[in-house]
Specification:
There is one protein chain. This protein is mainly β. It has no helices and eleven strands. Strands 2, 4, 5, 6, 9, 10 and 11 form a seven-stranded mixed beta sheet that branches. Strands 1-3-8-7 form a four-stranded antiparallel beta sheet, with no helix packed on it. The radius of gyration is 13 Å and the shape is globular.
Length: 115
């Protein structure tokens, strides 16, 4: 019933830009926590960015380069990634948290940044 579908991941050269999308199966409330996480091979899954209403939070490694946003009418969350580095290579996952719910995850989308 509850679904998150990520898209937009691809191979991109270092210094380039990419926008990821996360389509939610229902309305995103202003109190919901929407997030992007990433996981590289052999590494743990780490927070990239979150948005609650209009308030955003970013990992230090992406601050100033990535921007999280949402379009409530389209039930979609975005991650705009600029000045990409090879270290950004990972599977990127969308996350949806609501009070009283289990958290939900998308299937992930692969981002590969070449030198």
């Amino acid at each position: 019933q509850v679904q998150l579908v990520e898209s937009g991941g691809r191979l991109v050269q270092a210094g380039g830009s990419l926008r990821l999308s996360c389509a939610a199966s229902g309305s995103i409330f202003s109190t919901d926590v929407m997030g992007w996480y990433r996981q590289a091979p052999g590494k743990q899954r780490d927070l990239v960015a979150t948005i609650i209403g209009g308030m955003t939070n970013y990992a230090d490694s992406v601050k100033g380069r990535f921007t999280i946003s949402k379009d409530t009418a389209k039930n979609t969350v975005y991650l705009q990634m600029n000045s990409l580095k090879p270290e950004d290579t990972a599977v990127y996952f969308c996350n949806w948290r609501r009070s009283g719910w289990h958290e939900y995850w998308g299937q992930g989308t692969q981002v590969t940044v070449s030198s």
